[in-house]
């Protein structure tokens, strides 16, 4: 077994006349990791995943999944890979238990009733297992999709935007489920346009934009590399505080999430102590002062120059 | 094999749980056979209202009206003599009415006593010539006036006609001829309409992509749909046949060849639905294209109307429609007991189905380009 479950080199997918859906990307995924491909809609995430699932042919480049060349030998690894496509909807008129039985048969697996129940239980659908799938909530449908993708006990699981369109609670539920699956040893390729999702779940993140990977690494590495590392938050300082900082030649910004707060980025850890002292001793009126690390959201803003909401880039 | 069986079971489960699918497969043909039976089984027994104005002062006008009544084809309704017949027809929106003119008897007597007097003494039929009731009334009037002429000439008819059924069992009725058409139509609508919609749904919901990541082969998926529809439509055939037999005293029979035709019909129209599904991206488009292909085929292939009454160019179109051969084959075996003829029709349907199947298998892609 190779160390890397997925190895992609110089992968390209062009559509005539001039659409570069995937533009010369390379990456690898280690065993037992959650690898997250992060980017806005149209960045090329799904195209990449579908190439690795054997559902699209690339224009050029190479890709090995579980040691097999996917362009020549995909049939050899088909049974070792699980898939949850984007916007998954189960068959409306099958119950979850029936759907699991059916899916197992599609992989030529004989699955007992106990095994079906265990799989349904692993995605927390036991109480809903005898309902028609059309009666499940959006989050439950995705959980069923994950159960189906696990039916062949895959070594590698592709989850293409598994939480898109779900409410925050359902998203967190799925995050827990994905973590449990990873902890059992399954390698996960996760695409998402939710920055918090990538930051929370991924061991490794590739930020994708216009077909290219523009940054890659562990979430904390990306924050260190592309962020300001640490931010001092002046809670309640408001616009008056922001203007006073300007007069003191201290770079600051108003918090977009809460315009009562003023944010002061500090690049080097060694500068933190003196900056805190300067701010604490200033005559700026504030309710509290504390520090927080920058997030992938800040990194994304720095890299692309735009914020991302629900997969759409905003000015 | 287990993949194929599992796919049949899973697909069948969903189909049978869908009330719409079940209705069109099993209930709709039964409703059709009952409705068609109610319409056609009474044909020949029902009477048409015929409005007659007798202005004749002698006995011959009354004799004519009584003779029309004795045909048992009409309920004779007398138009009062003081009414203007044109106004009466207009006010009552009639399609046909008969006038026995004034001096009808006198004019007849004149021609009997004075052989030199020429010209016919006419009964006048008013009406819309495009309506079948007009043809029926003129036909009956002609027969009655011929009878009157024989009587007046003191002659007796010598040449006549006897109707004889062309089927072996003379008890066959209209419904025996309609049943195969209804069965053929049910096979076509269920397999074609449902498969076109299924293909669009599988594509829209990414089921094809998901299936492409498993071990099931495309041909297995296609064959499993054919097996399911062949089984379902065989049940529909038996149910429709039994209801028709109980309700309308039908004499046609179920033969092994009829089941073979159902199976081959299911194969052909399933494959045709898949082929149409290749070009459709969403369920709305699927419905539109299936209707555009299915409805004309339903009416042009002799399901409801005999092909012989259609203009030549429509008969030419019917000649290239697989449903025509399915209907003909079912009639051959169920009504005429002609399994040789049915086998030829089955062969045509199968070859067409095979072409559709090969094209659908080659053109349908579960993957993206």
Question: Would you kindly provide a brief summary of this structure?
Answer:
Chain A is built from eleven helices and 16 strands. With 315 residues, chain A is of the alpha/beta class.
Report on this model:
The complex is a heterodimer of chains A (315) and B (369). Chain A is of the alpha/beta class. Chain A folds into 2 domains: 221 residues, Rossmann fold (3-Layer(aba) Sandwich), CATH 3.40.50; 66 residues, Alpha-Beta Plaits. Chain A is built from 11 helices and 16 strands. The longest helix of chain A has 16 residues. Chain A is globular. By secondary structure, chain B is mainly alpha-helical. Chain B has 2 domains: 221 residues, no CATH class; 105 residues, abc type-2 transporter like domain (abc type-2 transporter like fold, 3-Layer(aba) Sandwich). A 4-stranded mixed β-sheet of chain B has the order 2-1-3-4, with helices on one face. In chain B, helix 3 links the parallel strand 1 and strand 2. In chain B, helix 9 packs across helix 10. The two termini of chain B are 29 Å apart.
Number of strands of chain B: 4
The tally of structural domains of chain A comes to: 2
Main sheet: strand order of chain A: 6-7-8-3-9-10
Low-confidence segments of chain B: none
Strand order of the largest sheet of chain B: 2-1-3-4
Shape, per Cα inertia axes of chain A: globular
Q: Let me know the largest β-sheet of chain A.
A: 6 strands, mixed
Determine the N-to-C terminus distance of chain B: 29 Å
- What is the terminal separation of chain A in angstroms? 45 Å
Biggest beta sheet attributes of chain B: 4 strands, mixed
Order of helices and strands of chain B: HHEHEHEHEHHHHHHHHH
Write the CATH homologous superfamily of the largest domain in chain A. Answer: P-loop containing nucleotide triphosphate hydrolases
Q: Helical region count of chain A?
A: 11
Measured by DSSP, the beta-strand proportion of chain A falls in 25-35%
Q: From the 3D coordinates, which CATH architecture of the largest domain in chain A would you assign?
A: 3-Layer(aba) Sandwich
**CATH class identity of the largest domain in chain A:** Alpha Beta
**Helix segment tally of chain B:** 14
Radius of gyration of chain B: 29 Å
Percent range for helical residues of chain A? 25-40%
């Amino acid at each position: 077994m190779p160390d890397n479950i997925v190895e992609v080199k110089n992968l390209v997918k062009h559509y005539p006349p001039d659409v570069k859906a995937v533009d010369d990307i390379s990456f690898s995924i280690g065993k037992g990791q959650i690898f997250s491909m992060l980017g806005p809609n149209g960045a090329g995430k799904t195209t990449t995943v579908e190439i690795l699932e054997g559902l699209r042919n690339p224009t050029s480049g190479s890709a090995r999944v579980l040691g097999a060349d996917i362009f020549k030998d995909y049939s050899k690894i088909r049974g070792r890979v699980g898939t949850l496509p984007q916007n998954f909807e189960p068959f409306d008129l099958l119950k979850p238990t029936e759907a699991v039985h059916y899916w197992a048969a599609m992989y030529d697996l004989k699955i007992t009733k106990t095994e079906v129940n265990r799989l349904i239980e692993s995605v927390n659908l036991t109480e809903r297992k005898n309902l028609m799938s059309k009666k499940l909530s959006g989050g439950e449908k995705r959980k069923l999709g994950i159960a189906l993708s696990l039916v062949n006990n895959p070594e590698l699981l592709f989850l293409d935007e598994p939480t898109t369109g779900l409410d925050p609670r359902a998203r967190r539920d799925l995050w827990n489920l994905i973590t449990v699956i990873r902890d059992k040893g399954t390698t996960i390729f996760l695409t998402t346009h939710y920055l918090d999702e990538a930051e929370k779940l991924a061991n490794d993140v590739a930020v994708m934009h216009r077909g290219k990977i523009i940054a890659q690494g562990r979430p904390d590495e990306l924050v260190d590399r592309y962020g300001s590392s640490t931010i001092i938050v002046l809670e309640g300082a408001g616009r008056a505080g922001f203007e006073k900082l300007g007069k003191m030649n201290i770079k600051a910004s108003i918090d977009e999430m809460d315009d009562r707060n003023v944010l002061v980025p500090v690049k080097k850890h060694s500068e933190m102590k003196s900056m805190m002292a300067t701010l604490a001793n200033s005559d700026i009126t504030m309710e509290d002062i504390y520090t927080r690390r920058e997030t992938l959201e800040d990194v994304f803003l720095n890299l692309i120059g735009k914020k991302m909401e629900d997969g759409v880039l905003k000015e | 094999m287990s993949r194929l069986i599992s796919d049949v079971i899973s697909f069948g489960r969903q189909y049978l749980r869908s009330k719409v699918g079940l209705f069109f497969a099993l209930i709709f043909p039964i409703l059709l056979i009952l409705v068609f039976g109610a319409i056609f089984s009474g044909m020949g027994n029902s009477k048409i209202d015929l409005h007659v104005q007798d202005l004749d002062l002698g006995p011959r006008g009354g004799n004519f009206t009584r003779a029309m009544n004795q045909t048992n084809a009409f309920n004779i309704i007398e138009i009062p003599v003081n009414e203007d017949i044109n106004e009466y027809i207009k006010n009552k929106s009639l399609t046909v009415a008969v006038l026995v003119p004034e001096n009808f008897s006198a004019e007849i007597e004149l021609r009997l006593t004075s052989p030199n007097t020429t010209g016919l003494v006419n009964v006048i039929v008013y009406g819309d010539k495009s309506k079948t009731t007009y043809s029926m009334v003129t036909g009956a009037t002609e027969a009655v006036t011929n009878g009157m002429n024989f009587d007046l000439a003191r002659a007796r008819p010598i040449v006549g006609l006897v109707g004889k059924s062309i089927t072996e069992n003379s008890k066959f009725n209209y419904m025996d001829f309609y049943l195969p058409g209804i069965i053929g139509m049910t096979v076509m609508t269920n397999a074609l309409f449902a498969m076109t919609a299924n293909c669009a749904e599988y594509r829209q919901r990414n089921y094809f992509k998901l299936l492409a990541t498993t071990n099931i082969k495309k041909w297995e998926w296609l064959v499993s749909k054919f097996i399911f529809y062949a089984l379902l439509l065989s049940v529909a055939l038996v149910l429709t046949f039994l209801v028709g037999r109980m309700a309308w005293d039908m004499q046609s029979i179920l033969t092994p060849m009829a089941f073979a035709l159902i199976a081959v019909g299911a194969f052909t129209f399933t494959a045709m639905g898949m082929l149409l599904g290749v070009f459709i991206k969403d369920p709305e488009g699927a419905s539109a294209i299936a209707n555009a292909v299915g409805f004309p085929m339903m009416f042009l292939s002799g399901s409801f109307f005999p092909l012989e009454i259609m203009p030549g160019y429509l008969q030419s179109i019917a000649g290239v429609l697989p449903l025509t051969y399915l209907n003909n084959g079912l009639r051959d075996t169920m009504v005429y007991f002609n399994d040789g003829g049915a086998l030829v029709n089955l062969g045509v349907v199968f070859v067409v189905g095979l072409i559709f199947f090969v094209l659908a298998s080659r053109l349908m892609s579960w993957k993206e380009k």
